[in-house]
Each structure stands twice: as C-alpha cells, then as structure tokens.
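[worker-b] picked up task from shared queue
[worker-b] task type: protein-ligand structure
[worker-b] ligand name resolved to S-adenosylmethionine; SMILES cross-checked against name lookup, match
[worker-b] sequence length check passed
[worker-b] input payload:
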Amino acid sequence: MAKEYPNSEFRGVDPDNCEFVIGNITETLPYKDDTFDFIHQRILLVGLANSNWDKCLKELLRVLKSGGYIEIIDTDYKNVINTGPLMDKMHILLCWNLESRDIPAGIPLQLEERINRTGYINLVETRLFLPLNHSSKADKLMWQDYYHGVLNIRPLMVKYNPE
Ligand SMILES: C[S@@+](CC[C@H](N)C(=O)[O-])C[C@H]1O[C@@H](n2cnc3c(N)ncnc32)[C@H](O)[C@@H]1O
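[worker-b] inference finished, payload out:
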C-alpha cells in the first residue's frame, strides 16, 4: 500500500515486541554485525534468484551473533510426489517459469552445500511433506494457500501454456 500511495503515511499496529523495518536481504540489512541470537526466514523461494541466495546466506550470517541459530524454511517445487497428471503439468510449468527467471525451484536441496560454503556450522536438516489431499486441517489450509497462489499466477501460466 505504501508503494501504491506514496503521498500517504502508514503506521503499523503490532504487539510492542514486534518491529518491522524495510530491508533487502540481498543487500545490506539495516543491522550491525552480531545483532541477533535467532533468525527465522520462511518462503523466500520465489523472491530470490540463484546469486541472491548466496548473498542472503552471507548477510544472515553477518547479523547473527556468534553461537546463534538461523532457521530457514522453504519449499521444494521440483520434487513433488504422488501427483496426478494435471498437477504434474502445473509443476513443470511453475518450475520452468521460475527457472526462466533464474530462480531455483528446488532450492531446499541446494541449501546444504550453499550453507556449508558460506561458513555456517552444525547444519541440521529436516524434511517435511506437505500433503494436499484434504484429509486434515493442515492439509486443507495448505490446499487453500496453494490454490489461491496458483489462481494469482494463472495469467502468467496461461501465457506460457494455454492448456
Ligand atoms: C511468500 S512471503 C513469506 C512471508 C512470511 N515469511 C511467511 O512465511 O509467511 C515472501 C516474503 O519475502 C519478502 N521478500 C522477497 N524478497 C525479499 C528480499 N530480497 N529481501 C527481503 N524480503 C524479501 C516479500 O516481501 C514477502 O514478504
């Protein structure tokens, strides 16, 4: 909204232990070295191109205190399993679309190498499956999220494959 209405001023209301600042993780964040004990980053997949991931990991490490922890959670669009033919087609198109913009659609499987190369230590990796089969509350929420995400990028997908 702030971008759409540059003549207006915006104030956020949040609990008093929460602060938002504007920053770009691929550049220099507005924090000094060794600021945070714990950093959480989730679902940056569609925002970061190949070279941005290395910059991002370096910048997170810079603002982390020595002995601190970083948690990175992201989605692997390249290795979906038990999908039907339509979902397969959609994923191929989605990955192709991301990769045509140099965005790695399977970033989670690259993170170990990238993280080690950046100089992090004690890497722990956990893989979780996100079912989309409407059998539990989490599955239903995941499906709603997924469905609306796909609806939003429909014009882009149609451009590449009208089918
Ligand atoms: C899919 S949302 C995820 C939001 C939240 N982390 C979550 O898990 O619900 C991706 C977020 O990353 C932000 N983002 C994308 N590229 C970024 C960058 N280069 N630096 C900082 N934030 C970025 C977007 O503005 C957006 O808020």
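[worker-b] attaching auto-annotations
[worker-b] Residues 24-26, 42-44, 47 surround S-adenosylmethionine (CB under 6 Å).
[worker-b] releasing lock
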